Batch of 3 targets.
Target 1
Amino acid sequence: MVGSANLNIMMKAARKAGRSLVKDFREVENLQVSMKGAGDFVSRADLAAEAILKDELRGARPTYGWLAEEGGEEPGEDPTRRWIVDPLDGTTNFLHGLPHWAVSIALEHKGKIVAGVIYDAAKDELFFAEKGEGAFMNESRLRVSGRNRMIESIFATGVPFGGRSDLPATLHDLARIMPECAGVRRWGSAALDMAYVAAGRYDGFWERRLNAWDMAAGIIIIREAGGLIEPLTEGGDILEDGEVICSNEAIFDKFVKVIRG
């Protein structure tokens, strides 16, 4: 696939940041880590990757706005376009030597996500999509799964850590869905959970209390792969509320009914 100039800038930036992270991942035991909060760590590798992304993305498109996990929000001269970036989604996995983490980049235009890239550097899998152009992983076209029975489907979610206030709601969700499906996975990277739904590896995903940079790229990748995605709360806003539910079309209504109760 030959993407737009913006998409190619995004893919180049993701790969460059990914290479930097892989080098640090190989020496994960030597990383200097500081506490950012209960169960939420930030490493120098994370900060270095964000610096690379900022240099690449804002260097190529200096008028675009910026929203990122570590660097916060910066308005751009062009108020209609904004990069939404997570340099390392799955930080806890990274710091424990688990090869399941990703670089996530989305481009927002007039409040809508129009392009997204999720790069799993440890496995060299680059998931990407652009509005109206389909979704891909490396050279392969992505499609959501074709399963139409909940009992045959596998779902992903996040389980709150450190005594977060949303733990009871998640446990309630699990109690409802686990008897209805073939399994639930918690792999520690919302960006990759969404990419895996687009790839048909998971049949659906839901989670609460996420940040915009966790989900932005996944939104467009899932939609372009033929999936359905909505706010977890009916009538809400995915990025503003930090809640999402998504799956293939065949099981979506049933899945939503189980989770929303």
Target 2
Amino acid sequence: MKKLLFKIATIASAIFITANVSAQTAGTLTFTFTPVSKTSCYQGSATTCKWVLASWIQSASGTFEQTTQMYCCNGQTSDHVSTWSSKSGSNTTGANTGGTLSGFTSTAVKSFTWNGKNKSGVLVADGTYNIVFQETWAHGSSTATYTYTFTKGPNSDIQTPTTNSTYQTGVSLKWIPTATTDIEQTVAGNMDITIYPNPNNTGIVNVEFEKADNIKVVNTLGMVVLNENVSHLTGSTSLDLSRFENGIYFVCVTDGDKFSKHKVILNK
């Protein structure tokens, strides 16, 4: 029984640690485009042709995160943008919404932003995400679904895609992470700290110091992901961050009432 409880506790601890070391960079995605007018549709002439449009953010594995825009008629979706409806459950929290598009409105430049959060307002993990569009005309018998891919993380991802020009022109995609307000190094007292290599592509971070009693590694959410008690008059130590997600971390060194904080960029 004790062995079983130990195993359960170990698994639970591993899950907790894994959940807490996933980087979650705050930032803003801005997507701008001009829709291409339709020449045939389910209602109206070539100049007043009516059609519907939806777009959403989903993870690389297909998990729906948030609707970014939804232009349709009276909330009807089952025979218009059924892919979006199925994925999102018709959730439009945080989205740009409006009525059915027409030949008059389709040529207007459109844009939307995404705050890096899911439909519940929770900041999602860093990684690869897709912006998926679905357009429908001819009363559902003509539908196009297409995708743009970007990376959400501590680095900017700026693109001007040329694909899918049948449906859009002037496409601009920008993921800009929120600039951290933490300075590179904060020192209380006289501490001589050297941290290298930085940026780091191996996960092994070397820390040299005159004297220290504790070293912590903190992620951008303020969670302590590594905690080491050290006792050196002079010395050094190596921190193994290789199991952590790429992103920004802070190495915090203390010696009594002295404190030093250093930003480390992990990019394995």
Target 3
Amino acid sequence: MKNVLWASLLAASAAMIAGCHGGESAATPGTAQTMQARVVESQEQQVPVGLRSTGTVHARETAVVSAQVMGRIQQVMVREGDSVRAGQTLVVLDDAALHASVEQAQAGVKAAQNAQIAAQTNAALAASTLNRYKQLESEKSVSPQEMDEVSRRAEAAAAGVEAVRAQTDAARAQESGARTMMSYTRLVAPFAGVVTARMADPGTMAAPGVPLLQVDQAGALQLDATVDESAIGAIHKGMKVQVAIDGGSSMNLAGTVAEIVPAADPSSHSFLVKIDLPSSSQTRAGMYGTAEFANGARQAILIPRSAVVARGSLNCVYVLDGQGIAQLRYITLGAAQGNLVEVLSGVSAGEKLVDVPSDRDLAGKRIEVQP
């Protein structure tokens, strides 16, 4: 009985071994299906090392318009998004009280001018009287006391003219000040730009220093990015920077470092770097952006983007072995470099890959190189 059992086990083992050998021979390169495809090669190259920093797009100049005098707002002549020119009236305040001050100052100037005319007339009379007395004195027809009195009156009249002239100058200065104060009731645009904020409406009481409008200067914009103090040494004025703007449609712009604020923020230990952006109709103040500063180079393995196959959230490529058989291999991708993409793991330099595999299942297929 034992001999029969051992014979059965040996027969089963022989059948399994024969089956395994038969499976291997079916997958040999000689029997693999052949398909044509383009083939590319992974390459090891130097790629720039980028230092990334985030920031917000701003106008190069921004002005907050506020009143310089107390007054009730009569008109706000613009709204958010309106374009304005330099010197254009934006807000009008009630000027009744200041207008009365101007009229009062004008009356003071007129009174001072009349007083000056009277003083000049009196001084001219005193001077002519003095000249006559001098002639009489030469003829010994007046006493020394009378001559002294006439001389003193002429001197007092001349001094009176100077005093009234000073009063006239003061009245004119007061009028000029009143007119200047009244000019503050019309708030104007400091430069050509766009109104980006409106914080007051007619009827509101305006006070000195309280913001009423915000105006961004027209023209090119800047990205204000923060850079850690450990990396600020690699950045210099005039440096070219790649800037990616996140908006409705992502934009890549070539910026230039315009200014590095020399003092670091003590709380974050970072520096503010201002980057000039080229003019673009799609760029708006307030957008979020990422700046990438060049900071040396390193070795990396690059493959064409067209060789990458997406399988759900995973990326893979078809790698050819020594017999030209395609094998599916999952990879980890890094940053893109133009039409190439960096491979962090899964592919070595010099390996051959199937280019543009599309939706074809090439695993286990022999690949014939397509010209």
